[in-house]
Amino acid sequence: MFLGDTLQEADASVAAASQEETTMMWHQRLGHMLERGLKVLAERNLLHGLKTVKLPFYEHCVISKLHRLKFARVTTRSKHILDLIHSDVWESPELSLGGARYFVSFIDDYSRRL
Amino acid sequence: MYPIKKKSDVFPVFKVFKTQIELETGKKIKCLRTDNGGEYVDDEFLAFCKQEGIVRQFTVAYTPQQNGVVERMNRTLLERTRAMLKTTGMAKSLWAEVVKTACYVINRSPSTTIDLKTPMEMWKGKPVDYSSLHVFGCHVYVMYNSQERTKLDPKSRKCIQDQT
Lengths: 114, 164
Prior knowledge:
The complex is a heterodimer.
Chain A: H1 2-16, H2 19-29, H3 35-43, H4 59-65, E1 85-91, E2 102-108
Antiparallel strand pairs in A: 1-2
Chain B: E1 2-4, H1 10-25, E2 31-34, H2 43-52, E3 55-58, H3 68-88, H4 95-106, H5 119-124, E4 139-143, E5 156-160
Helix pairs in contact in B: 3-4
């Protein structure tokens, strides 16, 4: 009877913990696992007490994991010679015989002539 | 492609390049895209571009991805340079000559961005003549002209090929 009481109480406390809190607990237990990963495991009933995965905004993860998105591929191309010139300086680890340390390149965007 | 001794040479070299290329094509440079290197954000350089009506485009700081065309070209240039240095067994200090040769052949090699045409073909509108190409660094015998030798002197000397 006494045992049953505690069990009931424990069940009640699990139920009381919102799914959001449970998600957060598993998120932290699994070393800040991504939401998609939690969903995969929850669907297979491997994470106790977690039914619906709902991860709220979590600043630590944003601060720690933020990364750049892929750069979009450029689709605009020049239509004429000399419309756009790309330039850059390359530094050599070694001095050339003529005393040069760098080379500067100018590339025409239309023809790609260097 | 111009080898330079110091970064401040970029501006004078650009002026030489601009004059020559504009005279050759009869067209004007309209826009120049670079990173934010000190040699490009130089006051005199900026003033010159303003005066010539050249629009300047700068990449976001520390974002070479936005300078993709030239950064990718550096890779191509250096790949060819390393290959030629390796096969000829030349000293690294000859890198400037090798990079110039790499530049010369890249301008005459098909590129995917221009539908496998060559840059020189895009530039001149007609295919390139490859008949005078030689292997970089091969041995050639260069004839002395009559003023350089007497009748009993050798007629030629052994040299290394560098057609640029």
